[in-house]
Structure formats: C-alpha cells, structure tokens
Automatic annotation (TrEMBL):
Main location per the UniProt record: membrane
Membrane topology: Peripheral membrane protein
Parts of the chain that traverse the membrane: none
Residue ranges occupied by any ABC transporter domain in the UniProt entry: 61-291
GO terms of molecular function: ATP binding; ATP hydrolysis activity
GO term, biological process aspect, one: response to antibiotic
Protein name: Efflux ABC transporter, ATP-binding protein
Cross-referenced SUPFAM superfamilies: P-loop containing nucleoside triphosphate hydrolases
Keywords annotated in UniProt: Antibiotic resistance, ATP-binding, Cell membrane, Membrane, Nucleotide-binding, Translocase, Transport
Amino acid sequence: MSPAAPDVSGAVPTAGEDGTAGMRVRLSGLRAIVGEVSSPARTDAASSGRGADPSGQGAMVSARGLCKAYGSFTAVDGIDVEVRRGEAFGFLGPNGAGKSSTMRMIAAVSPPGGGELRVLGLDPATHGSQIRSRLGVCPQEDTLDTELTVRENLLIYGRYFGLSRRHVAAKADELLGFFQLTEKRGARVDDLSGGLKRRLTIARSLINDPDLLLLDEPTTGLDPQARHTLWDKLFRLRQQGVTLVLTTHYMDEAEQLCDRLVVMDGGRIVAEGSPLQLIREHATREVAELRFGVGDHAEVAATVADLADRVEVLPDRILLYTDDGEEALAKVHERGLSPVAMLARRATLEDVFLRLTGRTLVD
C-alpha cells in the first residue's frame, strides 16, 4: 500500500480518529518537513521495504563533492561528508556557511546541485520519499499546531507516516514520558514555555522511529536551564543508538553533543574531527584572556605577543594562546600591565573557530 501524500494544509480527521473528530488541522509547515511520504506504510514499530544496506554497516549519510548554488551564489562548494551509524555528527559554522543548505539536501527536500549524495544508502534524486519516511526532522523554527493539544500534535503527525492509530497512540505516550511532557499532554501549545515547545518538536520528529534524526539549531533561543535539559535528552537518544545530525551556533553545545563535526565557512569544510581532536590540532592547551579599556587592545597586544604561541585581538579582549595560562597572566603583571579583567581557561571550540575563520561564530 502506498498512500498519497496528505494535504497537510487543511486536513480534517475522520470521525473518532485519535479523538480529534471534526477538528480542522492546519499543521503549518508539515509539507516541508514530511515531504511526500509515499513509501510503504509503516504499521508497526518496524517498517517494510527498508531498501539499501540491509547489513546496517554502511554510512547513514555519504557525500562526495556535494554542491549547491542559488543563481550565482554558491552555498555549498564541493564538500565530502560521512555520517556513521549511531553517532552524533555536527555542522558548525557562521550564518551563510552552507549548513542549512547541506541539511536540506540530506533531508531530501532540496536537490543537490552537483556531486554525489547518499542518505541511508539511497539516492535522494530517485528515492526521496523513501528517505523522508525514515527521517526525523526538527526544524530551526517550531512548526507546532497551536490549536491542538500536546498529545494531538504527536497523534496527527504520526498518521502522516501511515502508522496505525494504535501504534501512534502508544508511541506518543512513550515520547511524552521520555521528554517529561506527560503532565502537559492535554495542554494547548500556546500555553507551553519555549523549552517545552522545543521538547515537543523533537518528540514529534521521533514519532516514526526514524533511522536518522536531523536537528537544525535545536536549542536556539532557549535559556541555559532549558538547553541543558534538552542536551540531556539528546544525549540519551544517542546512547540508545539514534544517529543525530545537527547544526548549531553554540560551540559548547557541539562539544557536549557531537562525536565528530565539521567546521564550514564559505560553503566549504575547513576542519573535521572530534571536538578534542580539533582543539588539539588548532589551539593550545590553555588560553589567557585579558580585558583592557575600549580601544586599547590592539596596542597592548603588541607588548605581550611574545608571551604566547599566538595572540588574537578581539573588540572586547585579547586572547593569549599558550600551554600555561596562569604563567602567561603572571608575566603580564610583571610587565606592569593592569587589565580590567583577566582569566585563564582551557581551550574550546570557539578558539578553534577563531583560528580557522578569523571571526566569532555569530558574526
């Protein structure tokens, strides 16, 4: 059985279906997320017709020379990527680096402009609907239906994958428990906090037991407590064997969640590896930060350049890259300099990013 793609712009469930009889559902943005799911209907936890790579040993995503252009603008410029089964893989980069364009090609909603791409062992150009039926997608912006309750959002979404009502109901309750949303199951989406909405969006993306979960900036706009709660849930999913591919603007998030990542800039990959590997390769063990008065940093940097392997001058501080940050700070004092503030810390992915791109992540 191969059901036609649902018209999600205005679906009206049949009487008694999932307890939403007569409710007109807009579900804005679902067509872009689900796409045309016309692969064999999934009636239980497992699906039929899994297609390529029955051994499960191949790459979940494999790209060679992948390109994407919009008119004269090249968004993705010949990148090579391989995502392994069961890992958390990240795309790190500033706005315009090509992260979202790459994610849209992986999600089989935007055709590659060149190169080769395989997702779940399949070619998106010829097996797009089959790929989309096996993906979970958490978009950057929440696309929850505000007229439905928390649980109804999961129930309606699951039905678009051809899942049985019984399976969707059981899976919805399982996900509500996992994301600590059970007490909010009957609440309207408009009554939820930003963190709860984000948890619900990710829960919805898991309703079809996807082989691959795509997360586009999953914690943008959340407060620190909500971010850490969501990190915990994503970490637990990874421990359960779910393959994650995510983009993020937060370097601490990439360090926390990613087994491996690539740093993109100008549509190209400028570095690849685990967070620890990248820090070891592109930064020193520690960093000393110095803050002086506005406009003084460039002048002061010249007087301390010999105290570090490398000096980075930012608008609000000077970074001294060294293997011993405390020793560097002591020598700064010996030279009679009096910073407004200073600290020694371990190197992070932010330092890697400054080394590779020469600017902060949010520029």
